[in-house]
Amino acid sequence: MKKTTTIAALSIAAILGATPLLASADDDYGRGDCDDRYENRHHGKSMGSDLKQYSTDEMRIMAYGQALRRFGPGVDVSVEETSDGTYRVQLRDAEQNLIREQEFNQYGAPVRGGHRS
């Protein structure tokens, strides 16, 4: 009788100990057409894939913000649109020395001069 009680107690303890493992192994994604894993995707595109084309004024504001953050006050930023539709950004210090020159496309991505100084 004592042996049976011990086996039953160990069996119950083993089942209760494994319950959290069984519960955590449950997969909520096996529900068929209601798949939440890709909730940020829309029509085959990932979130943020709708790229915005920036105007010259928007590029100037973004370039000045980045230059101010990186080089501090006193930096002069000039943004000019080139003939091929890109934007040339020049950063100059208080003495008008060229710190950096870089070219960006209409989406704000570097085109030429992308090396870090």
UniProtKB/TrEMBL annotation:
Keywords: Signal. Residues 29-41 have a biased composition (Basic and acidic residues). Residues 1-25 form the signal peptide. Residues 29-51 are annotated as: Disordered. This is PepSY domain-containing protein. It comes from Marinobacter flavimaris.
